[in-house]
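testing teh design pipeline on a random one, pls ignore if ur not involved
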């Protein structure tokens, strides 16, 4: 089982054990989104029993491949509009300049790393699928080269030819 599947199974077990903890109760104020007022019952905050919680069925996520996760992340990153990308690029230029000038503090360096990571994810969402195809073709050509070298060695061994370096 993969690490992600193990972690997900562990989370599922945690939620199931919380749902089974029937004698634990906690006060919960429910916010009515339309009026932003607190919903209460008889002037008191609504009390919800832990047994009222229903743990979601996470089993449907088991066995999802890394390709699915990558495609989902790329789809999410493609939703970033051009204005946000320009804002990130501007912030990146400012922070990189501060770093080069030696004036960036720890917080700015961490922010620079985050902004660079975000821009990389956005770029990957745009050009990643084409690069994945290219990468698979390169891998295929490397394998073809290794197979041809192996074939040549086999032919040389059968024919008695001395291998060349």
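output:
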């Amino acid at each position: 089982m993969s690490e992600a599947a193990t972690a997900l199974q562990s989370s599922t077990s945690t939620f199931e054990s919380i749902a089974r903890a029937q004698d634990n109760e906690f006060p919960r104020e429910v916010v009515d989104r339309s009026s932003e007022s607190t919903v209460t019952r008889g002037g008191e905050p609504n009390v919800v029993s832990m047994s009222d919680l229903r743990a979601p069925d996470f089993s449907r996520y088991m066995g999802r491949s890394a390709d699915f996760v990558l495609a989902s992340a790329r789809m999410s990153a493609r939703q970033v509009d051009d204005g946000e990308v320009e804002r990130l690029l501007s912030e990146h230029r400012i922070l990189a300049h501060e770093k080069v000038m030696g004036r960036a503090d720890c917080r700015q360096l961490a922010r620079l790393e985050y902004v660079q990571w975000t821009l990389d994810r956005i770029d990957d969402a745009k050009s990643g699928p084409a690069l994945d195809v290219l990468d698979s073709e390169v891998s295929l050509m490397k394998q073809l080269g290794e197979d041809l070298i192996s074939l040549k060695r086999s032919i040389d061994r059968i024919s008695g030819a001395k291998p060349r370096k």
